[in-house]
Predict the 3D structure of the following.
Amino acid sequence: MSMKKLMSQNSRYRIYKADLGQLYDVAKFVVSENYKHHNEKMLDNMAEDIQSVYNEELSYFPKSYIYVVEDFRGEMIGCIRVMKWDKKDELPIQRIFNINPLQCIKKGGDMTFWHIGRFAINSLANASGISLFKQLMIFAIVPICKSLNGYMIAECDSKLLKIMNRLGIDTRRLGEGISYLGSETIPVYADRKGLLRFYSNFKHLYYDTNLSVSSN
């Protein structure tokens, strides 16, 4: 039985916090949408990539928040995952780019790292696309903004990165982009300060009346 938790809804879609039983569907959705957007000729690798993404998310699940978006037919049209990094598990940025965030992000203090990944929106959700983008990103960065020394780590599609920067998320590159899951992917990070402008502009999209984030 599904234990997903309803987080938000409007006239077009609902956002749920996913349960363990939805992980494979999330993996399938992410890989399928990525290929659809970028490289339809890579279908031969799809099953292998879905299994790889699923295995990774399964290992991260105890430390993750995974949000899925469904339309009112129950079809998945978006998702995102944020995970608090224990500084022990291997991150994609380490495996794919050979980048160790602990060595590259040297800011001092007791830093808290959060990895954001598995961000995808159905290509047919054009009318809701930008709203979904903003809302899913708000859900992902809330725990980072609640941590006074929080840092976001991500491997971003180059087109997604441009949108993030345009909407007020101040990211910094950790290396050059490479082809991953059919698109150019760039390793980036952002500190809490770099996320607060976006948070301040769109915090109304996060429906948690108990949330309080300082702008100090």
About this structure: Strands lie at 5-9, 14-17, 64-70, 76-84, 112-121, 150-157, 172-173, 178-180, 183-191. The CA atoms of residues 84 and 114 lie 4 Å apart. Residues 208-216 have pLDDT under 50 and may be disordered.
